[in-house]
Amino acid sequence: MSHPSLDAPNPRLPLHRWQIYPPNQRAIELAQSSQISPIVSQILINRGAETSEQIQAFLNPESQSLPSPLEEFPDLALSVELLEKAITTGQKIAICGDYDADGMTSTALLLRSLRWLGAQVDYAIPSRMHEGYGINKRIVEEFKETGFEVVITVDNGISAYDAVARARELGLIVIVTDHHDVPPQLPPANAILNPKLIAESSPYRGVAGVGVAYILAVCLAQQLGQIKGLVKPLLELFTLGTIADLAPLTGVNRRWVKRGLQQLPHSQLAGVQALIQVAGVKKQAGNNKQQTLKPDDIGFRLGPRINAIGRIADPQIVIELLTTDDPGIALERAMQCEQINQTRQQLCEQIETEATSIVEKLYASSLPQDRVLVVVQPNWHHGVIGIVASRLLERYGVPVFIGTYEQDEQIRGSARGIPEFHVFAALEACKDLLGKFGGHKAAGGFSFPAKNLPQLRSRLVTFANECLQIEDLKPLLKIDAQLALNQINISLYEQILALNPCGIDNPDPVFWTANVQVVEQQLIGKGHIKLTVSTDGVTKIKAIAWRWRDYYPLPPRIDIAYKLRENTWNGNTAIELELIGVIAIPQVCFSPLAPHSAKFNYKQRHYTCGFFPTNSLLELRIKNDVGKVLAIQSGQNTGLVGTKRENATSVDLSQPKIYNLVQAALKALEIDKKDAHD
User: Is the pLDDT of residue 659 over 80?
Assistant: First the structure.
């Protein structure tokens, strides 16, 4: 028979730090002046929009005037001049792309635009498996041998000093278009376009590689007087690449992506329509009732199918998909993307399962001390281990460095970091142990001799302990506002849609609700929890928790953090919750013991306590030395405090001082019970 207990939070629940934005007093005032919901104005304040003018600019990005990119990018006019000359004189132009979604959409965008403008143009993408990221001397020399005279890099090249120097040595004109961090020594290109080289205040500062390619293509077409009919397809490719590359959805990215998402459902690009079809993306009605796609449609459906090709197959499949005008070829390539993505998913699941097993056996107990996870195993596909690194980070809350053996003596890997940990700085701290490496604050890639693995792990542990506190190891959840479940409806959801497109630097709004009862729950699909929640037994709302198999079943009473999502089934539309965080609420649960009492001391005060039957339930009563009583019924997470029940006040049992007092009482009753049996 179990003894009475006050249940502590379930240790199997996801561990998060909740950072809840404080309610801003100006939210109601701004809501009235801007004619929006106070909830929406609170979210906008959280995003940095603190005046009516800033709110209007955020909600209507097209209303803002943009500076000419020719004024913002120092080498843009020169780049346009070099390409105009190449087109008019018949010089052959080569594009060197990259194998991720940004690089492949950039390549397709420039191919489409340059062909439209009459250029002789072709492309190459380095092999992920054999060459790694970025333009290299082999590609440069092949371009020269094949008769190319102008080389444009897209989504790479800013760090390729040696390859660019070799190209110039061979007499090639080189235009570098990239968005990655700028190294101390710039490559000796004829022109460089990189938003990291322009003012931080510029609206173009956050564009990805595909954004730089889009700006270059549009300016060139305008210069040649052939812009009509070109912008729409290029904007669609820009939208795909920008969201898939997790670029910030601020500045021109927000403005152009918002427009591109509205265009994508009606795309004239055969490849885009084929990809939408095979991915099963449903075209949604936006807040203006026009069809639109959502960033998640690209981030979780179209983007992964594009990225899967670059990870484990030939990028040429995606380039053909996005440049063909033949619906038959487009559908064939889209089906290849679908099949390869399924293979990618299977690889990820297999590697994640193996990696999790290794971590649980070897490293889980030491993670609080190590504060970083380094896991290496043979026979993992290095094209997908970056995805697995992200999943391990989500599960364990520590920076993750994951690798696999290329040959017996060489390891190649990927890294993912938490906000308080700088991945590239960590790799820099280990550079004497590494071969090639690169990256930025949140992610990186690396290779190193296998013999250096013990030293590398030790060095990374030292680095992690220097920059991370133990509390940093819980992932941070930023929560915008508290909602009551009866506030959630279609009207509120449609107002929140005005904040789209949401993504990096403009995240989906996150809400929280306290003391929710889990009415029902079940596991569905590949380990998702589907549940119904309520706070009053009357208002019930459905929810989903993706990939939460390990946390099933959820406790009966929880605080929840969530996003809102729309679900349409059989013609009926309902707003549901997408859970991203939970906190278990302690509840007192009594076993059916005979009523008895005990005395105990707690914090230098005298108490008496005992169990009493009420309404077929046991009630724990704790009385202090001045006659005030705390009464708690079995299965509850709140109690009553007072000298009389009719004027008692409610208290939350999860408060530390209440929690600890109840624990002391239960311990006294358990000891008393044992003494009686003796």
Answer: no
